[in-house]
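Dear Dr. H.,

I hope your travels went smoothly. While you were away I took the liberty of generating a structure for the chain from your last submission, since the lab meeting agenda had it listed for discussion. I wanted you to have the full record in hand beforehand rather than looking at slides cold. The sequence, exactly as received, is reproduced here:
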Amino acid sequence: MNYKRITIIAVIALLVAGLTVVSYLLMEKNKENQEMVQLFELEKEEMENEYSTFANQYEELQIQINNDSLQIKLERERQKTQRLLEELRQTKSTNAAEIARLKKELRTVREVMRSYVIQIDSLNQLNEALATENKKVRAQYHEATQKMTKLSEEKEVLNQKVALAAQLDATNILLEMKNKRGKETDDLKRATKFIIHFDIVKNATARTGDRDIYVRIMKPNGDILSKGDPTFEYENRQLKYSIKKYVEYTGEAQNITVYWDIEEFLSPGTYSIFLFSDGSMIGSEEFNLE
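The corresponding predicted structure, in token form, is as follows:
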């Protein structure tokens, strides 16, 4: 009986000792956890201060430089840094994974900041060197600009001469009137058809191939004879024409004839014939019709 009692007492003593040890270990673990939380909070506070410092530095760098492209990049990095700072502020100190991610982001921000500081310092040094050469460069640029302007003007004159030499030229413009029986007449009231003859002169410099020739017949009151109001482009305007004639130009002299059926009343007076091709007027003539 005494043996059993001793055994029970021993077991109880062991249990009490075990509970004491467990309690001690739990207290130590809790103390250790509290210290870790304090450490995390301090680390988080240091990170917040560093993020805030970098954001302010980006803003100061933007003020120091006069480069729009670089200012845009700096503003983009400032906004990114500010966003990461807000994320850090909203993160709990005990969120080890998120703290680790933001710490890694902070290293990147630090490296990017260092690269921009070096870049801006280099730009400042370069600007000082450029300022030294600025007067010389401006003088050289002014001289070069004057030469380029002169060359451009000379080139424009040559281009105009070449264009004039290459355009078609219409001569010997004649206006013939015929009556309803197909016979020539000088009486405008009896005329039922205009027949217009003209020559395209020989031009070795003109482009050969298909050409459209537009004929404008202007009445004494300034109106253009036209059917359906067709137009062509001339000096950035749309002009009404009377007759369109397709020709295949070979570079040699050609005689061209076009026809206009008179279907409206025409009053006597001065009628003008204008010929156009490739955006240029190539000939004109006036006729007094009675």
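Two observations you may find useful: Strands lie at 170-178, 193-200, 209-218, 231-234, 237-240, 243-249, 254-261, 269-277, 280-289. Residues 2-126 form one domain.

With kind regards,
E. W.
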